[in-house]
Amino acid sequence: MSNETYTFNAELRTATGTGASRRLRREDKIPAILYGADKEAASLTFEHKDIIKAQESEGFYTHILTLDIAGEKVEAILKDIQRHPFKPKITHLDFQRVDATHKLNTKVPVHFIGEEAVTKAGNTVVHQLTEIEITCLPKSLPEFVEVDVAGLVAGDSIHISDVKLPAGVSSVDLAKGADHDQSIVTIKANKAAPVEDEAAE
Length: 201
Description:
Radius of gyration: 22 Å
Shape: elongated
Largest sheet: 6 strands, mixed, barrel
Number of helices: 5
Strand content: 35-45%
């Protein structure tokens, strides 16, 4: 796991509802909710410019974040981010508190390596999943899961059960049973270009 840290200043808000949220967005702020760890949900506000910059980094979605709420540091993970349908605006954030003694469920991205070897052999790498849902204690949360496809040929595939997850990390899907063992990536042969019949008139 990366040592990079993500800390954000947040303000508690008392006014809730559609009207209050609309006013906040006009002020270039983002309404948010923080829940979990058997505590009451808290309504928060973030500066839009801070979150817009942070969301460009993959770590914003996968790291344990530190929220500075009126001087109190709270660890949390991002559970949901809502965006405006056509403007480059974030409209709402959902955070879940992190308790070091309780496992958390979250999704981590899949990083594919070795794709160049597959394409050079005349095949196509088809990504079936780009993230995997996992459960683990906060200290074991991986930044991503790596899948090596370099040795695969046409017709091969890799399923969730084929991936070696870090110690202390388990797949949420596999815990549901073998029929939830989804394919992560498959290799398909490129179709040969049609050969023109020179003798055809």
